[in-house]
Structures are given as C-alpha cells and as structure tokens.
Write a structure and sequence with these properties.
Blueprint (H helix, E strand, L loop, with lengths): L1 H4 L8 E2 L6 E3 L19 E4 L5 E6 L5 E4 L7 E7 L4 E4 L10 E4 L12 E7 L1
Antiparallel strand pairs: 1-3, 2-5, 3-4, 4-9, 5-8, 6-7, 6-9
Amino acid sequence: MKSLFAARRWYDLVPDQDHAAVIDGYGKATPLGTGSITMDTYATAARTPDGTLIMVYLPTIRRITVDMSKLRGAAAAHWYDPTTGNYIAVDASPFANTGTLEFTPPGKNHDNNEDWVLVLETN
C-alpha cells in the first residue's frame, strides 16, 4: 500500500461521502456491529479538493460510474492491484474531465481476489 499512497498527496484526500465523484455502483456498507467486513461491498472513494486525484477502493468486481467533472483536467486512469502493488492502465486513458464514465476492474487480482483500487489523476 505504501507504493499506492507514498507518491500521492493522500493527506489531501476527502471522503466522497455524498457520492459526488462515484455516482453509481458504490454498493452498500455493512453497518457496524452487524456482520463481517468480508460481506461489505461498499466502494470507498475519496478525492482531493483541487480535483487532481480520485481514488476508489472496490472490494468486489462491478461497474462504477464516476463524474469526471470532479477532476480539474484530463485524467490518467489505472487499476492498482493491492496484492502485488502493480498498476494496469485503463484502455483509452487519459480521459476528459467532462460527463460520466463507467469503470470495471479487469478481473480477479493476482491472488484471485476481487479487490482493486481505481486511481484517476491529472497531470
């Protein structure tokens, strides 16, 4: 995880609790004390106020929709595999900061699990 956060201004990230950046597909959080965290499907998202970075942790494979206007410019998109620390570029990246785009993880990660991190960042 160090390779994911060390090169970025992680300390500027603000949780996307109002679903302004990830507008669909964010799933449902398991209420505290009601079950195992392994049952949680919630896509945890955060973004920087200056629009340079959006990060989304997806515990399960599914499509999410991102409001690209929350970024200040064209954004490179990558999937980060938390089991290896490797990145996979999203086809057709970089993307304009207009409209909405759908993103789906590239399949199971290296350890045959479903979790990935979507990283959208401007230059």
